[in-house]
Amino acid sequence: MDKKKNTNEWKRHRMQALWALLSNSYLAGFIQGKIYKGPIKKLCVPGLNCYSCPGALGACPIGALQAVIGSWNFKFAFYVAGFLMFIGAMVGRFACGWLCPFGLIQDLLHKVPFPKKIGTFKSDRMLRKLKYVIFLVFVLLLPLFLVDVLGQGAPYFCKLICPAGTLEGGIPLVLLNKTMRSALGWLYVWKNVLLVITVMVSMIIYRPFCKYICPLGAVYSVFNPIAVFRYRVDKDKCVDCGACSRVCKMNLDPVKEANHPECIHCGQCKKVCGVQAIR
């Protein structure tokens, strides 16, 4: 059973890797140390993928939302909000489980051997509400009200918190540009500290950034129970063996909590069900 579970999980990882390569396939950016700014960059990608990554062909929806929420560019703000609602309504947090490059990185980090893996802890469920606070404060309120003399807000989540931006954008650009290296300050150090902490915790706890921090996951989670792509549980077939809850790395009971806001639709519960009660 474990061998079958691992095989299915690696199939998902291949899909994650393929999507990460497709959305970051601007190879010239890695050679020149520059960001792609062509017409495709105006389009958002479903997952958390940094705009400043040298290979990024699309924009991160969270970064795009922060960039326009405090400006007068309402048309683009409506586009980003509509994009988030469309992806959420269609697939919910399936995007987190299958289409997010930083989700793949956390998945792989958790496979690194570590003496003690932590599945859950006393304040786990309460701490998961933090991502909603981060979305409200850093993605919406600060860019909307803390603006410059031109009335333009800053992408505070990207600037102060996002470890994905540091890994995908900050570090590659600094390595590829001498001028940037001479201008580094406390903010770059702070972001790298957060990245190191995220990497270390990801080895111990499954997807800690997704569970506790990610504002994109917070948005998609609202749509999970009503998304077109969601799980259906046939309770007449279910024999209450508990196999699905034991295999869930998001610490859910798929029978009692089908399409819970924390479910990333990884598919492990469906694969492990011996009576095919989950579809």
Provide an overview of this structure.
The chain has 279 residues and is mainly α. It has helices spanning 2-23, 27-32, 61-69, 74-91, 94-98, 101-110, 124-127, 130-145, 156-160, 163-176, 178-181, 186-204, 208-212, 215-223, 243-247, 268-272. The chain is built from 16 helices and no strands. α3 runs parallel beside α8 and α10 (163-176) packs across α12 (186-204). The protein is globular. It starts with a helix and ends in a 7-residue tail after the last helix.
What are its keywords?
single chain; 279 residues; mainly alpha; 56% helix; globular
In short:
It is built from 16 helices and no strands. With 279 residues, it is an all-alpha fold. Helix 1 runs antiparallel to helix 6, helix 4 crosses helix 14 and helix 10 packs across helix 12.
- Helicity, in percent? 55-70%
Rg over CA atoms, rounded to whole Å, is 19 Å
Element order, helices and strands? HHHHHHHHHHHHHHHH
Number of strands: 0
Q: Quote the average pLDDT.
A: 91
Tally the helices: 16
Strand content: under 5%
Main sheet: strands, sense, barrel: none
Shape: globular
Structural class: mainly alpha
Which oligomerization state do the chains in this entry correspond to?
single chain
How far the N terminus sits from the C terminus, by CA atoms, comes to 19 Å
Low-confidence spans: pLDDT under 50, at least 5 residues? none
Question: Layout of helices and strands, plus pairs?
Answer:
Elements: H1 2-23, H2 27-32, H3 61-69, H4 74-91, H5 94-98, H6 101-110, H7 124-127, H8 130-145, H9 156-160, H10 163-176, H11 178-181, H12 186-204, H13 208-212, H14 215-223, H15 243-247, H16 268-272
Helix pairs in contact: 1-6, 3-4, 3-8, 4-14, 6-12, 8-14, 10-12
